[in-house]
Amino acid sequence: MPSRRADPLTLEVVELIGDVVTRYHQEYEHAASSHQLTGAQARVLNLLSLDPMPMRKIAQRLRCEPSNITGIVDRLETRGLVERRPDPADRRVKLAAPTEEGLQTADRLRESLDFAREPLAGLTAAERAVLRDLLRRMLG
Q1: Residue 106: burial class (beta carbons within 10 Å; 0-12, 13-18, 19+)
Q2: What is the pLDDT of residues 73-116, one digit of tens each?
Q3: Residue 84: enclosing H or E segment and its boundaries?
Q4: Is 98 in a helix, a strand, or coil?
Q5: pTM of the full predicted structure?
Q6: Backbone angles phi, psi at 97, to 5 degrees
Q7: Spatial distance between the Cα atoms of 56 and 82, rounded to a whole number of angstroms
Q8: pLDDT surpasses 90 at 117
Q9: How much of the chain is in helix, strand and coil states, percent to nearest 5?
Q10: Above 70 in pLDDT, residue 125?
Q11: Are 94 and 82 in contact (CB under 8 A)?
């Protein structure tokens, strides 16, 4: 029976992806804490700044339990960064949406993330497009 061991190039790529993920999480946590947020709160606020959505959808997007999202949204709401409002399409559903202060905080948070800015600045636009396309293919 032939061995199914990965070749050295595949192993190196997997290791590099792991390094990128680790660096991303470290810098995201650092940026979040500089805004007195946890990493999870920052990710929820960032997601909502792009599109208000129900808790269930936030949980799906971030791949976590809806009960965790409820607690995170509660804390963001207490800070005045998020509010709950009826969904115009279905008034039985509540959307979590950023307040004006929440939008400003999300913008400042994105500005303070150096993770992608510096390494990606060393790539040409064409190289960034190839990287994006390859990552999309990997994710299906």
Answers
A1: buried
A2: 999 999 999 999 999 999 899 999 999 999 999 999 988 887 66
A3: strand 82-87
A4: strand
A5: 0.78
A6: -140, 145
A7: 16
A8: no
A9: 65, 10, 25
A10: yes
A11: no
